[in-house]
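Render this sequence as a predicted structure.
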Amino acid sequence: MWADLIERKAMEQNKTKKLTNKAIAQKGMFDEEKPDAAKKKPTNIPVTKADSVKKARMDLRLLFLSVMGLFIVVIFGWGICQSVKEINTKEKIMEYRGTEGIKKVEDNSRKAGETIDVEALVKKVQDKVIFEAELNKLGDSVAEGMIETTEGTNLQIYVGNGTYADELIIMTAKNESDAKQNQESVKTHLSETKKAFEDYLPEEAKKIEKAVSIRCGCYVIVCVTADYETAEKTINAFIQD
């Protein structure tokens, strides 16, 4: 009987010991899992100095690209405005000079029947306008061979030497209708002269592009000079006086 009690007591102790060991083992496993949870990355990562520098560089690069983009847009817009301005200017010039390439002074109708002192006009132009070469009057036969005119037209041509396009032409027709035909002949003359200079003296050809051509009544006055603005003002002022 005592032997049975001792054996039963031993079995209970062994059972208790096993349960205790199992509990200890489970506790150890639970404790081992905790470090893994602790290893999780924190949600708030500290910003280092290198990260700040990198971000600043990116912001600076974006700012630079934005400024460059704005600059390109401004330049593009400026180019469009200049193109429109140039087109409008050319249209105004064509309107000012007329489709025939000869400008009519504003008070042409009032002055159309009046006589212009051609010799005085020539002197005024030579005194006021700057020419790169001294102008000399061509003989009548030479002048008539250069420009075709209507019957009865008095033609006077003053030119510089062969290396300059400077020229002063005054055509006095019998009436305004003949003057309109003469101005067509002047256009042909200027076009041919321009082509001749383009090949070896392009700067002189540019003078012809800006030639001052004015028709008033039966008169056609043409002046080729680099000082074309002064020439235009001088001729118009003389006609309107």
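Summary. Residues 100-240 form one domain. The longest strand covers residues 154-159.
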